[in-house]
Amino acid sequence: MSTNGLIGKSVKRVEDKRFITGRGNYTDDIVLPHQTYASFVRCPYGHAKILSVDTSAAKTMPGVVAIYTGADVADVNGVPCGWQVNFKNGDTMKEPKHPLLVSDKARHVGDAVALVIAETKEQAVDAAEAVVVEYEELPCVVDAFKAAQPGAPLVHDDVPNNMCYDWALGNPIEEVNAAMAAAAHVTSLEFVNQRLVPNAIEPRCYNSSYDATSDKYVLYTSTQNPHVIRLLMCAFVLGLPEHKVRVVGPDVGGGFGSKIFHYTEEALLTWCTRKIGRPIKWTATRSEAFQLDAHGRDHVTKAEMGFDNDGKIVALRVKTYANLGAYLSTFGSCVPTYLHGTLLQGLYTTPKINVDVTATFTNTTPVDAYRGAGRPEATYLLERLIDLAALEMNVDPVQLRFKNFIPPFDGVNQPGYQTQVALQYDSGNYHGVLEKGLKMLGYEDVRKAQKEAAGNGKLIGVGFSTYIEACGIAPSAVVGSLGARAGLFEVGQVRVQPTGKVSVFTGSHSHGQGHETTFAQVVADKLGIPMEDVDIIHGDTDSVAFGMGTYGSRSLAVGGSAIVKSIDKIVEKGKKIAAHKLEASADDIDFTDGKFTVKGTDKSLSFGDIALTAYVPHVYPPGLEPGLDFSSFYDPANFTYPFGCHIAVVEVDKETGKVQLKRFVAVDDVGNVINPMIVEGQIHGGVVQGVGQALFEGAEYDDNGQLTNGSYMDYCMPRADDFPMFETGSQVTPCPHNPLGVKGAGEAGCIGSTPAVVNAVIDALWSGGHKVKDIRMPLTSERVWNAMQD
Amino acid sequence: MLLTGKHVVNAVPAKVWQMLMNTDTLARIVPGISKLEKNGDNSYISTISMKLGPVSSSFTGNLQMEDIEQEKGFTLKVQQNSKIGNANAAIKIGLTPVADTQTEVSFEGDVKLSGMLASMGQRVLGGVANTLSKQFFTNMEKELAE
């Protein structure tokens, strides 16, 4: 096929023109005729029985249009969970109702008790404050492990021990126990992978309307996947016919996973809009965002890694308690299992692995996928263990890795690598990224500096993390076998307009990733036309046939591949049209550089000529339809498996325990790269989020279920001046099973960076004689200082 | 949130005690108080306005004195509600004579906060509590001097 060299070029993002000049169109920018505004009455307690709700005073407040309470929606279904996990004994997970408004009891701070709709936002807020709710406080449980213990308060009365499920994967536990018992050295680590708040720039916002004459609903929503929201809301919550519901995700200011899920507010506003016959808008405040956007991580884990005398890993045993929060969020159940347990092979040849997960309900905000989702937790576990093992066995962490790495394989000449935990990796060269990382780092110089530093007031540490992740979330057969209640694929429609301009409809959704640039690059390159001639349309269920949205670094690998499949169909039909016009056989037509040419001649037609011919035919041969417009539903054969090596160098102040990140080297292999600048930007953002978890962030609940750091005053976000310039490198091991050879880059930075930084701090402490196994994240000065005192 | 502190005032315990038991005086010395009404034995209804870092609000609720030991101390049960969250506390207040003419007033308790009050401004609440207790003792000294 043709190429104009756009693939692989750092083209500047076309969408930034509107983003950086304040001309984006976000849900909160949309004001509909007869607009009303909503405000919620939310429970201030972690766990409380609702004794009474008195709306009488609120109803008389100025501007109030309607007020709904839990009693009004008692007959409406709750929001569903999209992934079924089974107990070890085969029972299905416990799935208590997640109601749109609670009526019996509230199970976490912020649980919605009533919805107030008024003429203005301020009137709605004022009236919501006038709703009087009588509560009876109940005892709380906020910790995943404690929730599973006998006697813990029950979040749902009908879920014994608060246990959503217990689950295991890998080799039989007896085999793992035997291998562990025979190991020459066992490194064990107990740690908390703390809870994080997603902190998207744009708080969630919904605007729902209903037109009685056409019996049609429109929901504008700050979502990562409009079609999925429509499907869940119509089929499972409200029972609406899908063709009567249009869901639009316009410009969305970031999600990091928190906008994948179907939230109660979306369904409730849609239910209410028909009742009042007017559009209703709700925009979360920043406090509500802290309190209610599904949180990430929150595991309590004990993990052990056994080694033989040569330093070869012989077994891995993992027991994790995962906090699901008060309700099952859309994908909450699959994060600690299928996105975490299945990644515990890492990059190593570990022959025996068993992972056991107990997932519990607690009086906290629901937990779900947050950037990386499950893979950061798995990587943190493995990479902490291996660096700690190296310290304990007094061997070099780099050599220990080289010894245990899976040998290189390209997935074409060598088969994919079958892990002990269900997955089969597509292609990998793990030695390559570590070698490149070491070269960029100047490893020996860093070790020399570490020794020299012993004399002054600082401790220097270097930490490694070599990670793998499963991206391109789709393969329907695979996710189905892992418990997904729906197949996952992506839709790409390419519509060539009569003048040769191209409209591309994609089911993946852009909320900062740069689809309008990357996808246009692919299309323009493949068709040999200028990028300006390509328009990328996404986020509207009325224009796009279907879509599964954007998460798990799937946009390009799955969505982009669907577009390529449609381009192939365009070219194939274009050849038929060209053959007819040029009086040749379609087999003899070449398509290169935007031209259809008869092989071995100078007879050719441009892409534009073919497009026009396709739409204004009058002498078509039988069997050739007019038009040039194709759709593809692409379902890949496997996940994609990006991997990489992240190295952190830190300096720890002996007097204060303050950690300063001095260098950060990242070598990522995300397969083929369409736009290197966009990939590098995604790596940078991911690294910052990952380091945020290591050094700064963490949601803290007190024993009463109160989120005690629910604002930027107390929740410490990373800032630019916390970071050195990142040193990034890349390696390319193409994905063997998708037409673009891409693997996905959105989450890599967030997955690789966290353990690298914590390992570096532990390494620094050991260099000063403090043989500390773990410090609880985030590694604040206080915690590091305390660790040095023991 | 733990709340502790003490302060020495220039008055004998009997005088300080008298002041603490007098609704009118209390209403003058408690910072931000706009309403304090006796509604039972050792029980009051109150309205207090307060600015807590980025948020300000009006609290209403009950104040109840328990375990009263004449001129020595009592436990103040606080239950206050506001649009930004609720506060519950049991604060032990003690009076100890110092020398012949002074009294050390001490307070100690755990304050349980909920809602936005708990999630916003943990960092500022300690400071606010300090400022308010200082104001309270300043007002008390002024009152005693008159």
Mean pLDDT of chain A: 96
CATH topology name of chain B, in short, is Alpha-D-Glucose-1,6-Bisphosphate, Chain A, domain 4
Q: What's the average pLDDT of chain B? A: 88
User: Which outline of chain A best applies?
Assistant: globular
Treating each run of at least 4 consecutive H or I residues as one helix, how many helices of chain B?
4
Helix run count of chain A: 19
N-to-C series of helices and strands of chain B = EHHEEEEEEHH
Give the biggest sheet of chain A: 7 strands, mixed
Oligomer: heterodimer
Evaluate the radius of gyration of chain A: 27 Å
How many angstroms does the end-to-end distance of chain B come to? Answer: 35 Å
User: Biggest sheet of chain B: strands, sense, closure?
Assistant: 7 strands, antiparallel
Tell me the CATH architecture of chain B. Answer: 2-Layer Sandwich
Strand content of chain A: 15-25%
The chain-level structural class of chain A is alpha+beta
Q: What is the assigned CATH homologous superfamily of the largest domain in chain A?
A: Aldehyde oxidase/xanthine dehydrogenase, molybdopterin binding domain
Organism (chain B): Panacibacter ginsenosidivorans
InterPro entries (chain B): CO_DH_gsu (IPR010419), START-like_dom_sf (IPR023393)
Protein name (chain B): Carbon monoxide dehydrogenase subunit G
Pfam families (chain B): COXG (PF06240)
SSE layout and pairing:
The complex is a heterodimer of chains A (about 800) and B (about 150).
Chain A: H1 16-19, E1 36-42, E2 48-54, H2 56-59, E3 64-69, E4 105-106, E5 112-118, H3 121-129, E6 132-137, H4 144-147, E7 163-170, H5 173-181, E8 185-196, E9 205-211, E10 216-221, H6 226-238, E11 245-248, H7 264-276, E12 280-283, H8 286-292, E13 296-307, E14 313-323, E15 353-360, H9 375-393, H10 397-404, E16 417-418, E17 424-425, H11 430-441, H12 443-453, E18 458-468, H13 476-481, E19 490-496, E20 502-506, H14 515-527, E21 534-538, H15 555-582, E22 589-592, E23 595-598, E24 604-606, H16 607-615, E25 629-634, E26 643-653, E27 659-669, H17 676-696, E28 726-730, H18 748-767, H19 781-789
Parallel strand pairs in A: 1-12, 10-11, 14-15, 20-21, 27-28
Antiparallel strand pairs in A: 1-5, 2-4, 2-6, 3-5, 7-15, 8-13, 9-10, 9-12, 13-14, 16-17, 18-26, 19-20, 19-25, 22-23, 23-24, 26-27
Chain B: E1 2-9, H1 13-20, H2 23-29, E2 33-40, E3 43-52, E4 55-69, E5 73-82, E6 85-98, E7 102-113, H3 116-119, H4 122-145
Antiparallel strand pairs in B: 1-7, 2-3, 3-4, 4-5, 5-6, 6-7
Protein name (chain A): Xanthine dehydrogenase family protein molybdopterin-binding subunit
Pfam families (chain A): Ald_Xan_dh_C (PF01315), MoCoBD_1 (PF02738), MoCoBD_2 (PF20256)
Organism (chain A): Panacibacter ginsenosidivorans
